């Protein structure tokens, strides 16, 4: 057993050698940090040049895929530098790294066989990003999770819901994806009306309301229009209104249209919904 005295004596005798090795380690780490930062800047520069700005309806939009792919590549680069720096430090200490590399190769095979889900997570995540299915900042619905993607990693993605919860989903478990950010949205608003409300009297009022809505809301791309009676029910019928909107704004536009229609129909004393309650209908049956 090595005693404290022997350790102190070793340090005293080999003081210069230990100091030199510590200095070498500091230099190696410093050089690794500098090289990593330079490569990091080069990678970011390459991405900023490769992904050009796209002009879309008067707006300048930078592809979200740039940030996502850039983040994944920088993450891989960082872990690669950790590993290489660690090996260089071991070599500077006089340790034979060939044995370590051989062992790492064997462990890598065992690890790959035993962690198929991990490999699958990485592959699925990479192809989802590369094919531009999802990107950081997209508003998506993945299975039962709806919200904004705030992070895409090598193993999982993080989705922040409207109420603030963070959902973490492994890439291999990503199933059906609804991406609201890839293209313009479309609003569908259905009005419930009693059969006592005459559709021919209602239509001119609706057209007057809808013709001015595009000017009032910048998220509306096309003038809302009445498609007609969409459904018939025993006690009421539905009138459908639709229009195109900017990305991720169809919920807000739908609320805006409902509010405007509700206020205007109230001014014209045109009721929405069924006029008679269930109690009144039951009394009529009796």
How is this structure best summarized?
By secondary structure, the chain is α+β, with helices and mostly antiparallel strands.
Describe the structure.
The strands form three sheets. Strands 6-5-4-3-7 form a five-stranded antiparallel sheet. The chain has a three-stranded antiparallel sheet with strand order 8-10-9. It starts with a helix and ends with a helix. It is of the alpha+beta class. It is elongated and about 100 Å long. Helix content is 53%, strand content 21%. The protein has nine helices and ten strands. The protein folds into three domains: 111 residues, Helix Hairpins (Orthogonal Bundle), CATH 1.10.287; 47 residues, SH3 type barrels (Roll), CATH 2.30.30; 83 residues, Alpha-Beta Plaits (2-Layer Sandwich), CATH 3.30.70. The C terminus is likely disordered.
N to C succession of SSEs: HHEEHHHEEEEEEHHEEHH
Task: Name the strands of the widest sheet in spatial order.
Answer: 6-5-4-3-7
* Residue share in helix: 40-55%
Q: What is the CATH topology descriptor of the largest domain?
A: Helix Hairpins
Low-confidence parts lasting 5 or more residues at pLDDT below 50? 53-61, 277-286
Q: Any idea of the CATH class of the largest domain?
A: Mainly Alpha
Overall average residue pLDDT: 76
Coarse morphology: elongated
